[in-house]
Amino acid sequence: MCMRKYFNRSVLWTVWCMAVLQGAHAQTKVLRGYVRDAHSGERIPFASMQFKRSGNGRLSDANGNFQFRFENSWPKDTLAITYVGFQDYFIVFNDSLLQKEKQDTLQLIVALERGKYSTEVVVSKKVDFGLLLWRKIVKRKPYNDRYRFSNFSYELYNKLELDINRINKDRLDKNKLLKPFNFILNNVDSSEDHPFLPIFLTETISDYYYQRNPLKRREVIKGSKTVGLDNESVSRLLGGMDQNVDFYQNFIPVFDKRFVSPISDNGDAYYHYKIVDTEYVNQRRFIHMIFTPKRKGESVFEGDCWVHDTSFAIQKMNLRLDASANLNYVEQLSLIQEFQLINDSTWFLDKDKFVINLTPFKNRAGFIGRKTTRYKNIVINDSSVVLALDNNRKLEEVLFAPGARDQPDSFWEKSRHEGLTRNERSIYQMIDTLIRMPEFHTYTNVINFLATGYLDIGKFQIGPWFNWIYANELQGLRLRFDLGTNRYFSKKIILHGYAAYGFGDQRWHGQADALYLFKKNPRLSLFAMYRQDLDYGQQYYDEITSDNIFSLAVRKSGVPIKFLNLEQQKLELFKEWHSGFSVTLTGDRKIYDPVLNLPPKEIYLGTSGEPLNTFEMSVNFRFAYLEKFFETTFYRTSLGSDYPIIDVKYTQALPGILNSSYKYSKIFVSLSDYTKIPPLGSIYYNVFGGKTFGTSLPFPMLNVVPGNETFYYNQYAFSLMNKYQYLTDRYFGVNFEHNVGNGLFRFIPFTRKLKFRQFWTAKFLWGDLSPANFSYNNGSPDYSFLSLDGKGYLELGTGIDNIFKFFRIDFIWRVSPQGVPVSAAQKFGVFGSLRISL
To answer: Is the Cβ–Cβ distance between 516 and 493 less than 8 Å?
Structure first.
């Protein structure tokens, strides 16, 4: 009986306690969440959070998390969240919010928008503690920069996402052209102020090795995943070799420009510094410092950093693009780096994030790019790094491990440094569905055809369309059609040809060529070509070709087009080595026939073979150390090199082969480079020279100085000189261009807002022509060539770049030679060109 009574009392006591605890729990309200940067998505540590009426407040923790508990009910109050460099954020706990949120726990994600520095950085004290801290950081840079180590290695994980923002889902849903792709709109993320659609994702996992002296770098890509884009060169460029950003350096690369780092050796000339807070994390003291530009329009950032008090190493750096920076289409840009302590004294990079909003048209749909890099398995000053680098065939090398581009999903689930978000997972599913849709390939081909001029039809390709229709005074209306194979036909050989008919001269013209790739990296190829068409003289990469439909609109008036018919057979073998050294062996037969506005073929009669028929053998040596390329299946575009590029070419003409008439030899040497000189912009220069050994040579076998007969600016030609105006058999020249950036324009509010850019150019040529070659080419009463006679030809120019973000105007003056009668049009000219740059 006693035992039963005791047991009943115990049960009642337990039930009563549980009821009381349950009731207490039901009366407790919990507010939790985290604070993040609205642009980059990064968590904001130690943000101040305070209720205005009650005064109750706290800071978010080191990871941006926060939590409040309230007894009985939610407060009727306003929560203010503030953080230096960001706009204040307020949450009003009113009846409408509380009725909507009747649960006991409220989860919040607070996204702070950047802004609001104003007068916070004005220094009014006698001792500028922000400047003192900056000096200590700079002094300790040699001891904190990771590149101080003799060598290091790590496993690197790169993730790049591309989104379309400001999506109007309702409008797109009604677009009939996009109706087959309406399922994509299910992926639109509306959790932010401007809804966005994730469209592209690529991931790379690699082992990276670095050695300081001699400088060696090596990256072995273990996994590369890109759905819908099968391009090996893109995977290489998105790895760790070309994505390194070091805030301890004086300048930080942002696209093609160099911005001054806030911890540059002379950063005090560009930034204001201020200490705003200190916090302890894991018993270590960190100082919070902000920095803002001293002047508008310079290539600088605004932002903040957390600095370890003892070592003065950066623990976290947040850089944001200043609104007045001279970058096109960039609405917002964030660069973030976090460092981890890998031993008692060494802070090493742990996370690297880059976020950019690109908006071609204001308040319209644009793009968001998000790149995240994580670092694991860090090894410092170890012999294993040296052993790995000993396998390099050149000082810097990026390799793919076997099967790297075909890794299964299980590899990625195991190897990712961080999991994919819901948006990121949906991208892979969406793109996989898209590439299976015939409509998607149709739309892609049409867009590509309009943009590039080429259209794939099965295993064949037609284009470019802008060469199909043309007209000139010799051929009248000219129609042309191109047909070639593509990568679906073969990945080793590409065939191409075109046929053109002139209704004025009633003649057919055409070309047939083939390229065979024995090996892609390093490159070994064989090219063969037969051509019978007009030769328009020198053509360069960024020049509007003379048979282009658009060239008619920009030709100089009163300058007759020179027409030279050319029959050509060419065989070319190209061999490249990993060092950047390459050799091109060429056999080239050419038969020229001047047909209009050039000396006629008859004045060159009397040779042992056919007049104007030459057969040349040439060898070209080129050295481009660590040159980078964007490659497609067969062709590639150079992205330049950090070092000068050297070209040496020797040509020997042999008479008697295929009825050729001439014997001569040529030597040509060129040194070119494109280099950054921050903060003064960039410089391009090309120093070249050559000599032709031989007499009584027709003008096509000599050096014809490149002229420009259009108002479209050509970087490689002399703007105030006509084509075929000057001949040389000895020459030396310099082509120089200095792009200053916004330069003087940054001091004028109007031009600073328009983001005008400043440049100046100089083109110089010294040349001479032997008396024998001069007299041999001036026997026609209808046309005569000029010689510089050992004098220098000089053009100087300046102008305005980035007009409306894509137009450039050049003002060109001819300075020398003096005393030579020329028209007013050849003394001064205004030229335009189009270019898209950030």
So the answer is: yes
